[in-house]
Amino acid sequence: MSRNLVIAAAQLGPIPRAESRSSVVIRMMQLMEKAASRGAELVVFPELALTTFFPRWYLQDQKDIDAFFETQMPSEETQPLFEAAIRLGLSFSFGYAEKTQDAKGETRRFNTSVLVGPSGEVLLKYRKIHLPGHSDHEIWRPFQHLEKRYFEVGDLGFPVAEALGGRIGMCICNDRRWPETFRILGLQRAELVLLGYNTPVHYPPAPDHDHLQDFHNHLSMQAGAYQNGAWVVGVAKAGHEEGCDLIGGSCIIAPTGEIAAKCVTLGDEVIVVECDLDRCREIQDNIFNFAAHRQPDQYGLLVEKA
Ligand code: CDT
């Protein structure tokens, strides 16, 4: 199997609260078609791709909250995505709010992403671990960020799958800011990290950093790529969504940390790069050869509670 994988980052523009899943699925399918026409074998979509970014609202009625969650994947509304992938011979990844029941019959809610193979099979599932924001209604904020209220911390760890001719891991949005995320994927010799994000331009607790949002986005992902010798595909839900500006800047980053392609709009947009997974060796066998140079005996503090 070739070690070249043609990857598309499929950025989504704003999704209004009133937009139906079926309408979003049509937009996603259009992006898949465009990506396929440019030779893509894998299409990467954002975090919580099927709806508006609902944690910006304090919702009290569980019915209103659950309206944003999927209880089945695929469902009747998302099945066309899976069918399009099969028809086009594509793999794709996307994020969604997952409501499920555990073995004890307890309801659990996660911020999830899946990687789906070209036959429509789920190759990898990840549940977001670093949940940003707050749990209670903070009325001083111009908009809420209630991920800690609506989701629990993911319970699948940071899995890496042998898939599509390489080793693939995923993370979601805020996870990308934590070096531990990329390092734990790197320690499993991930060659490709897929991630989606919804990042507001305005950060209410530190508004002086608003002008740095794009910089911090790329800084984190480029560092994660370079320090672990992996390709990183970061995909935004971008633009002015329900009164909130979300950054764009979706990009495909080489294992050297260089941005190979970047979106230039805040709307639905596709970028495509042919990614040679063997280029990971340039970094993983040399400057960041973990076996040769890492000093884990000195890192005990990293896994102690703060
Ligand atoms: N979705 C998500 O994780 N967004 C956060 C926003 C900043 S924290 C409120 C991020 O890290 O981009």
From TrEMBL:
Which GO-annotated molecular functions does the record name? Answer: hydrolase activity
In this protein, which residues make up the domain named CN hydrolase?
5-277
CDD domains xref list? DCase (cd07569)
Supply the InterPro entries for this chain.
Aliph_Amidase/BUP, C-N_Hydrolase, C-N_Hydrolase_sf
Provide the protein name: N-carbamoyl-D-amino-acid hydrolase
Q: From which source organism is this entry?
A: Roseibium polysiphoniae
Sorted UniProt keywords: Hydrolase
